[in-house]
Amino acid sequence: MRGVEKHPPTVSIRGCASYEPALVDDVVRRAVADLGGIRKFVSTGERILIKPNMLVPRRPDEAITTHPEVLRVAIRLVKEAGGVPVVGDSPAGRSTERILRHLADRTGVAAVCDEEEVEFVLFTESAKIPHPDGVVAKSFELASVASEVDGIVSLAKLKTHSFTRFTGAVKNLFGLVYGLRKAEYHLRMRDPESFSEMLVDLAERVKPRLTLMDGVVGMDGDGPSAGRVRDVGVIMASANPHALDAAALEAVGADPDSVWTVSAARRRGLLPGAGPEGGIRIIGDDIASLNVAPFRMPPKLRVFGAVPRVLGGFVAEGATRKPVFLARECVKCGSCVEICPAEVLSIEGGAEGVTIDRSECIRCYCCQEICPEGAVELRRMPIRSWARAFARRLRRDKAG
User: Fold this and answer.
1) Are 201 and 134 a contacting pair, CB within 8 Å?
2) Alpha carbon of 196 to those of 40, 136, 205, 270, 378: distances in Å?
3) What digits encode the pLDDT tens for the residues 80-110?
4) pLDDT tens for each residue of 226-249
5) What is the tens place of the pLDDT at every residue in 262-315?
6) SS3 sequence of 260-288
7) Neighbour count for residue 1 (Cβ, 10 Å)
8) Is the pLDDT of residue 393 over 60?
9) Do 242 and 352 fall into the same domain?
């Protein structure tokens, strides 16, 4: 299969100090050349979906979405290989034509598509894609275009994630899941381990030909949309999304196996054994010379396994952070209410803003991820608050 490589997987890391168009063009081309050139991944006449990270309608300089200059070079490379590029993604909420076009305008994607004369495809229709080899997911409902193209080139963003700890190459593919179906996966797979296993299943079903990671400017802390903007200064590329994530985590001073998608991929034999770089072949620039300061990673959510259910639930209630809605910043747009998998949010009148039933919150942090105003913070609750919430849950379970 085109683009699939044997172990050890190869990752190119190239320094890129800014989004100046000529610099991005040069660095992305060198990163792809390191892997054998674009014709290793794209053939003449093939229709290729280029899938950037377009999480929310925010400006490129906010470090939440793939920068449009990286997209521009990817489009040109696919064309130069004789392919026919189309561009598309879906946000964390609904996928309607109005929402998707606003998303493309705000992120700078629409302008690049117009200038490069490529189609921005609307993820408004879905198709069920079987995956009998999946570990936790035996099928996916994806945007129908994913099954209509010949291959996918993924453009990830180097960011942390409050739920999965990291949103890079593997997590970027979750944008192929159709609209609000994303929330259903959070409801079915409430802990980050099983959710991450699903993401690995998705990556293995989709098998992107090539992944480029925009790490010129990234995000740490409470990513993927409310974290701290960080100058990282790298463009990375690989045919293996698992290896790319592992290498990116090493580059920002994080333990790759502390991220569930990486550890799951390693257990499945999709990555070589653990080591300083996980057995990955790194080429390009010396990461040490780029002086990347270590990332501040989100706290690792506790999974209590063998702890008795009642005790484990009580400890989890206090040990993990919950969303707190900031009334002054909240504009009551309803995005968080709409996306909440557990349906525990509501919009009240007056100055109250959004209210939450904390006893039923599943801690997926979708509300924080999608909030356009940054009005959701993650905090550990005072002991009295979480004890009361846990007591309400126990009473509700007993009554049920």
Assistant:
1) yes
2) 29, 10, 14, 14, 20
3) 999 999 999 998 778 899 999 999 999 999 9
4) 999 999 999 999 999 999 999 999
5) 999 999 999 987 655 458 999 999 888 888 889 999 987 654 444 444 444 444
6) HHHHHHHHCCCCCCCCCCCCCEEEECCHH
7) 6
8) no
9) no
Those residues whose C-beta lies under 8 Å from the C-beta of residue 201, and which sit 6 or more positions away, are: 131, 134, 135, 136, 137, 140
Range of the domain at 395: 309-399
3-state secondary structure of 74: helix
pTM: 0.87
What the block records as the tokens of 1 is 């299969």
Determine the average pLDDT of the residues in 133-139: 96
- Copy the structure tokens of residue 134: 């999946």
Residue 395 sits in the same domain as residue 246 = no
Mean of per-residue pLDDT scores for the chain: 88
Residue 5 domain flag: no
Q: Is residue 170 part of a domain?
A: yes
> Between the CA of residue 250 and those of 5, 197, 214, what are the distances in Å?
21, 21, 16
210: in domain: yes
SS3 state of residue 191 = coil
Number of domains in the chain: 2
101/19 same-domain check:
yes
327 and 255 housed in the same domain: no
Same domain, 79 and 156: yes
Estimate to the nearest angstrom the gap between the alpha carbon of 359 and the chain centroid: 27
- Paired residues of 161 in beta bridges: 165
